[in-house]
Amino acid sequence: MSWVNEANWDRIARVVLGLVLLYLGWSGVVGGSLGTVLKVLGFVPLLTGLIGWCPLYSLLKFRTN
Amino acid sequence: MPCCAMEPALKRVEKEFAGRVDLLRIDADQSPELLSSLRIFGIPTLVVYHGGREVARQTGAQNEAGIHRLFEAALAGQLTGPAPLSPVERTVRLVAGLGLIGLGLTLSGGWVWIGLGALVSFLAVYDRCPIWRAVTSWLKGRLANRPVLEVKTYNQSCAGNLSARQCPLHLRCPLARNRLQHPESRALVRSLPPAPPPDSQWRRKCGTLRGLL
Fold first, then answer.
1. Could you tell me the pTM of the whole model?
2. Which of B24, B120, B132, B188 has its CA 20 to 30 A from that of B163?
């Protein structure tokens, strides 16, 4: 698919990173305002890894695949 | 919806497959409603029909070898529908889904996470699920029996100056003919007088669809 701009390794790394951030945020390992940020921020790499398209890459006309 | 970059390659392949493959070009700027009805969101897009059914769709510029392979595969009956998920795609979805389920199991009240994980995991294998296949084929059958949109769309493309009965284009368009599955549409076509031979006037009016003839 031409709109995919992430390599396979990039996608898997994003999914794993997203899951780790979500775990840290939602499990309470990281508390306070940083924990709240992680609760939301974790979804970003998870979703971009799942769909294989990064809007930031598109803006910067960059791709890893 | 070929773009200028693909046009030379398309012309060469079209010449090679003349008589075996009908190549129809649609101008995206002048026929937005047709693109919408075909659910095309990127340009250029190459949609392959075989036996009245869409068997492949490729978005993005293709080189001559790619188009050649696509046509050969379509003629050999090797294309039967959308491409299956790649192993990497499945892996990514499974990792994410199982990770979310694991997250749900470690968190108190994590049913939402487990549900989300189950959904993402299912997306990794949905194309192999017999229940999913049965439901989607039933839905496609229901949608195929809708009154034909393409006929209306093609008529609308004729600059609005030709009525349904006057415009001969829709009777000549394989895409429209292939979708004439609804009894009302078939009855409409049967009731139409024979299409008049194309003249320069309607050729000009339907200029955007010249490639269909």
1. 0.49
2. B24
